[in-house]
Amino acid sequence: MNTVDFDDQGEGVQRNCGFAATEKLFRIEPPPKFIYSCNSQAEFSFGNYHRDMSASSSPSIVLSFEDARRVVEEHATEIRAACFKDAHTQNTETLDLLSAAGHVLAESVAADRDIPPFPRATRDGYAVRSADLAKLPATLDVIAEIKAGARPGEIPSQVKSGQAAAIMTGAPVPAGADAIVMVEYTSRQDKPAAIARVEISRSVAPGENIVARGAEAKSGSPLLAAGCQLNHAAIALAASVGKSRLEVYVRPRVAVLTTGDEIVDLDTEPGPTQIRNSNSYSLAVQIQQAGGEPVLLPIAPDEPKRLRELIVEGLRPDLLLMTGGVSMGRYDLVEQVLAEMKAEFFFTGAKIQPGRPVVFGRVRASKGDRLSAASGAQKKPAPEGRKTSPLSRTYFFGLPGNPVSTMVTFELFARPMLKALAGMLPRQLIFLHAKLKSEIRSKTGLKRFLPATLSGEFENAKVELVRWQGSGDIAATASANCYIVIPPDRENIPAGDWVAVLMR
Question: Residue 464's closest CA among 445, 482, 443, 489?
Fold first, then answer.
């Protein structure tokens, strides 16, 4: 049996269970049955989740996942209300329809006419009077053929009793007809190009296979509300009412600060004990996908003065994300520096794995701290006409430095804050469910979000943990497409049980 044990920070420790200790678990061919053992013994300190800090220390405020998420959602709601109470005085821009995709709408979109603008056939068949089919079989005279896009002169003025009109999907239904009846043919070759009479052997109800004029929307009725994110369906709806340009909120700028003497830039040859900076780039992609604009700052060393300078620079955009330096090590200085800046901490940990030492708070940078510390920072000029945020303080997250922890904690906590800054109302987190492919064993106490693969076909989906080395294992996580969510009170989950799944 192979086991993977995890410590309190989500680090994977490989056990030598009949395989070479240097071989990565996720590369080993699995035996018939896997048991993953997630061991964690942790004690937690609780306190008021909202309080100002002294200049010399930060508290230990470790919340359950649910409480931590609720704290974030509460502040996200406040941010949204403060920033977007008057859309026309805030940061908006007008973009062409395709460029607006992914942005948050800053105006409402209404129907410019009834939708559909005429009674529309939903099936190929014959437009008939349903009363003519009270006695079957019924033989009706075919007076016309109506195709989608037919001009008014090509549509009969009325279908009278004893008559029918051949009609195509999407075509306008002529006056007098109140239903569409479908006539089955054994093959396309059997269907006549044009016929004078048709025999119908089934009845129809009034309105069958017809969408009434204005059934989807009446002229002037709202279709899209300000605050919705413009996905493909919203773009299609805007196009359907002739909106070639849309007013949207400017994407929030999110500073990304990676910390640690062991981190080097991509173009730098790493030393024997150094690693390349991957966290800034994974976060940049997540920020873009969530509707933000990443601002990558230089790597911060484990030295208080330069770290403070870069934190101050990171407080200039709308949100600051820091990775690393938030654990309990001697050189984990982020919380110390923030406390010296009189930061307000809402929590300094969450009972999850990976990602337990996540930090959330806000801070006001003094005028004296507004110095230029971002030499070499990768950032774009602010959009022309961008207005100052009404927020008096900048929110920040301190995310754990292990790459998987960084990815997970962004999704769980930073994403709703970014969405709020982009103009969206916060939404509650919803998990999917799938059947577990292989047994999982876990220690209680932490809610776990472990990389997994959802597979199967149609409704027969199953999910299984990937073989990984812990929260530093990017390669294994890259092969996953979701996270299995393990409740903190479950020690054993047998194969075949339903488990919660968070999609990536």
Answer: 482
pLDDT in tens, 263-277: 999 899 999 999 999
Contact (Cβ atoms closer than 8 angstroms) between residue 481 and residue 453: yes
Question: Cα–Cα distance between 186 and 193 in angstroms, integer?
Answer: 15
Q: Who's near 327: CB < 8 A, 6+ residues apart?
A: 9, 357, 400, 401
CA gap 58, 61 in Å, rounded: 9
Amino acid sitting at position 294: P
Distance, CA of 442 to CA of 4 (rounded, Å): 10
Dist. CA 70–CA 413, nearest whole Å: 10
C-beta separation of 469 from 408 below 8 A: no
Residue 416 shares a structural domain with residue 283? yes
Expressed in percent and rounded to 5, the helix, strand and coil fractions of the chain are 20, 30, 50
C-alpha torsion 333→345→64→5, nearest 10? -10
pLDDT at 185: 57
Q: 253-258 and 293-296: which strand pairing?
A: parallel
Q: 265: which 2 tokens?
A: 């830039």
Domain boundary among the residues 211, 235, 270 is at 211
> Does residue 503 lie within any of the structural domains?
no
Q: Which residues contact 22 (CB under 8 A, 6 or more apart)?
A: none
Domain containing 191 equals: 120-211
**DSSP states along 46-77:** ---SSEE--SS-----EE-HHHHHHHHHHHHH
At 224-278, the pLDDT tens digits run: 999 999 999 999 999 999 999 999 999 999 999 999 999 999 899 999 999 999 9
Other CB atoms within 10 Å distance of the CB of residue 309: 19
Burial of 18 (0-12, 13-18, 19+ CB in 10 A): exposed
Distance of CA 304 to the CA centre of its chain: 35
Classify the phi-psi angles of 218: left when phi > 0, otherwise alpha if psi is within -120 to 50, otherwise beta.
beta
Q: Are residues 273 and 362 in the same domain?
A: yes
Residues paired with residue 294 on neighbouring β-strands, in sequence order = 254
What's this model's pTM, rounded to 2 decimal places?
A: 0.80
318: left (phi over 0), alpha (psi -120 to 50) or beta: alpha
Size of the chain, expressed as the number of residues it contains: 504
Share of the chain above pLDDT 70, in %: 79
Continuous H helices in 241-347: 279-289, 304-314, 334-340
Q: b/e string for 156-176 if b means 16 or more Cβ within 10 A?
A: beebeeebbbbbeebbbbbeb
Instruction: Tell me, yes or no, whether 165 and 186 share the same domain.
Output: yes
Q: What's the rounded Cα separation, in Å, for the pair 52 and 319? A: 19
- Number of neighbours of residue 32 by Cβ within 10 angstroms: 5
Q: Choose among 350, 448, 438: nearest CA to 399.
A: 350
